[in-house]
Fold:
Amino acid sequence: KVCDDNRVRLTPIREKVLSLVWQSHNPLGAYDILAMLGEDGKVAAPPTVYRALDFLVSQGLVHRIASLNAFVGCSLSSRQHVSQFLLCRKCGVAIEIEAPDITNTIAKNADQYGFSIDNETIEISGLCQCCQ
Structure:
């Protein structure tokens, strides 16, 4: 629906990459995705996977977790939002949260200094409830 609304094409490889990211409850690296594609008999090169991931990020369907150099499905893809993640350093789970107060505070501070925000993703590491 997101791609239809944005009038962009969800090609078979993009759809497969999206499916693999969504099937995992932990962030996946591009080479993890490449290996999973190989298991399905699909032949893909790293640039193909990176292009698919770039497209999915641009459409808001997945997020890049910079500290892990990995990707996770977006649970809020139906609307524009700022990403905040709780990342478990033991099991690797990534929990997307929405904290408007944090987003507003950062925006106000950026405005105060005349700073223009291009991208904002907040990553908080710790231990999830299961791993504590």
About this structure: The longest strand covers residues 83-88.
